[in-house]
Each structure stands twice: as structure tokens, then as C-alpha cells.
Amino acid sequence: PERSSYCNYPGYQPTMFASSAVNLAQLAAFLSLLTQCRSQYVPGKINGEVVTLDSKSFPEAIKDPSNPLWLLKFYAPWCGHCKKLAPVLDKTALQLKGQMAIGKIDCTVDKGLCNQYKVRGYPTLKYSIDGEIDDYPLGRDQASIVKFANKMSAPPLQSVASYEEAMEYAKTKTEDGVIFLGYDPANKPDEAPSGFYQVFSKVARRKQASGNFLWLEPSDPESIKTPAIVKRIEPDVKVRFLENVESLTVEALAEWFTEQSLPLVNMLGANNFQKISKMGRPLAIAVADTEDTEQVKALKEHMLNYITSSENEKYYYGIMDGKKFIRFLEQFNVEEQHIPQFLVLDGPTKTFWQNETYSNLFEFVKAIDDGEIQSEMASRTSRKGILGKFEHYFLSYFPYSLVVLLLTVFGFVWMLVPAYEEDPYAQSALEEMMEEMEGTDKPEEKEGDETKKEK
Question: Alpha-carbon distance 17 to 27, whole Å?
Fold first, then answer.
């Protein structure tokens, strides 16, 4: 019988098969079967192990009221990184039993499901909350996954009594400093929640993984004359407002939150780089030595000055560790000895603009806009050594570099060609050259002599 028939058999008990385990091979097979049966999805069951999901069980699992929060691993059996992640998830699933379920989907079997959620590499981690699926935003180590589960298990919306309290929360209780503060004078403490409060609460629940949401409940409501509003608050950054919110739908408000959820200057790394680079704008990156805290601080202030000078929303902005990620950055012509420097990258097309001679972001972006810095395509292989540098500069300054190369080659060949002076009182230069040629060995003869010598 197939494994599934054993797992689904109503009277299934380990003792049914234990008696047949007369040797180690049978015992190992039995234990393997037992493990596989335990990892199958069962509706309503609180799991302490990684659960195998497929196209049939997946839709039911993510809407299971007993498991409202899932971490989902889309993988392939042959993937080395997937195998490395497996024991981490096994340990984490046991630790988070009852708090967050962990499921795995084999993309070599359920290709349609993986295509539906735009899985492009393995492993891909996503999460589901109340049936809504989004990209998992943190690291793949056990501590990061537990941290994520704790954040998602906390109330998605917290109350504050004043704007000052909200700002203090942004400074001390968030990692990126960005919070969203909602307020509606129609939402009375002793009455049914207002329509906008309900919309704001639903979005806070849906976007809890990537945002921090507060609701203003002033001790003296009469002191606030503001209509229903949402404020985006980030320390040292001008507050952004969203007004006329009473008629907003959950989808419209969620879209605005997604656009505004990033800090103006992000610390880019493996956890967020791909997500930010695919959000619809190119990335303006300051490549820095992050061990130099003064350098990072100065670069962040410089980028904030640029961004806030004219509300520059053409790019997303971030700082990347030029030493830790140098192998990645080499495909964009970044060299460690030229750090810090600026780089603009369009992630989906792998088009970039780079020139290490610019130390000012204002001037760097202007040079791009004026066409002084030309776009290039990322190279999968890093350019190292003399040949790599030659290729880089040749392509960067083409077609002028081609002219210089041709002139150099022509000059070199010209120096190798013998010069013959013409004597007006002697035979013509052509006749003189012919006589000299007749007095030398013919190529055929010379080759023949060399062949004889070799023999």
C-alpha cells in the first residue's frame, strides 16, 4: 500500500508495524514512515514539526483557524541551501509549536503552486497570516525566525496618548524607526469602532511583518481638531500625511503602506536587498565600510539631505557593506580600495551607473541625468586584474577608447616596419628594394633549411 494509505488509516498505531521490525532495516523503514506520516498536514492539528504541504492541502492549511500564522518554505530536493536550512526549521518548528506553523512545498512536484507565488529560486521563504501570503522579511537563522514569530504574535495595533509618545516609540522600539500613526475622531472609546479604525486595524494585521502601527487615543480628545488621518513618522525626517482616509479600502491603504514602509535610507543586506530592488524604483546605494561608524553616519546624513532637499522619490536609497558584499558588488565595477562610493542599480534589468570619482550624491545623480555617466550591464563574472580593468575602461569610454586602441596599434605596427630612404641620385627606391629581396633567402628555402636542421 502507498504511504498515504497508512497515514490515513483510522486505526493507525505504531505498534501495528513495530512488531514487524525484526531487523534494523525494517526498523529504519518503519521510523522513516512514521516521520513522514507525522509531517503530513492534518486540519486543526497544532504542529511541532515541519509539515509537508501540496497543491491539495495548501489552500486549507493557510486558512486553518488553529494555525493562522505559517512560515512557508518553497524548495527543491536537490538544492544545497534548502538542505542546509532543513535542520534549522526542524528545531524552530518544535520551539514555535502553537505560535507559528512551518510548512514546506516541493516545487519539483507542485510546480503550479510555486509558479502561482512567483518562486524564482530555492529556497524561497514566505509567510501566511489569515490566508494572506507575503514575502518573509528576516534572516534564515533560528533566532531571526523566532523573532519574526514573536512580532507576528503580538497585537498588530498599539495605542498611544500623544504624538510625542509615538515619536519615542519610533526611536526606541523599532529597528528601522518607521511607524504609522492612525487617528479618527469618530472612533469613540465607548462606541462601536469607526469604519476607518476597522480598515486601519485590518491593514495593520496584514502588514505587521514589515511595519509598526499605532493608534492615537488622546486623553483629551477635544484638544485635537484633526480629521481622520494617517501619519508616517520617522525620526529626523519630515512627517508624511495621508488625508481623506475615511473612504479608503483595505487594499488602497495597504498599497500606500507598502510604498511608504521603507526608511528613507535603508541598511541593505541579504534579508532586504532583493525585495527593495524589485519594488519599482532603482536603488541609489552608498557603498561603505560599515565598521567605520562615522563614515556610515556621514553618508546617511548626506543621503537624507539629498532626499529631503526636493522630495526625491526617483530612487530608493540605502547603504551597503562594501567589504562584506564585495564579491557581489564586483559585477558593478566596485572595488574595495575605492570605498566609499555611490552606485545606482536597476535590479530587474541589472543595469547600473557607477563612477568611483564622485563623492557627492547631488553631483553623481546630476552626472547620470546629464549623460556623463553611462549605464552598463552587470557582469556575472567579476573583473579582476589588468585584463578586467582594460575591459571595464574600454567599455566605459567606448567609442573613444576604440579610436585610441586603433591609433596605438597603428603606431606600434608603424615602428616595426623598416624605413627606406630615397636617394635622388641612385636607382629608384622600388628597384633597390627588389634587388635586396633577390639577395635574401626565399621563404620556401628558409623553411626548408629550418626543417633540415630540425631533422
Answer: 9
For residues 201-218, b (16+ Cβ closer than 10 Å) or e, as one string? bbbbbbbbbbbbbbbbee
Cell numbers 500500500: residue = 1
Alpha-carbon span 109 to 195, nearest angstrom: 44
pLDDT band at 399 (very low <50, low <70, confident <90, very high): low
Rg of the chain's alpha carbons, rounded to an integer? Answer: 33
Count of alpha carbons within 13 angstroms of residue 112, beta-carbon side? 4
Contact in structure between 319 and 285 (CB atoms under 8 Å):
yes
End-to-end Cα, the chain, rounded Å: 78
Question: 138-149: string of b/e by CB count within 10 Å (b at 16+)?
Answer: bebeeebbbebb
SS3 for 328?
helix
The secondary structure of residue 110, as a DSSP letter, is -
Which residues sit opposite 233 in a β-bridge?
A: 179
DSSP string, 74-107: EE-TT-HHHHHHHHHHHHHHHHTTTT-EEEEEET
Quick one: DSSP state of residue 142?
Answer: H
How far apart are the C-alpha atoms of 208 and 156, rounded to whole Å? Answer: 6
pTM greater than 0.85? no
Question: What pLDDT score was predicted for residue 33?
Answer: 46
The span from the CA of 96 to the CA of 102, in Å, is 9
Task: Provide the pairing of β-strand 157-160 with 213-216.
Answer: parallel
Chain CA centroid to CA 443, Å:
64
**Total residue count of the chain as it appears in this document:** 455
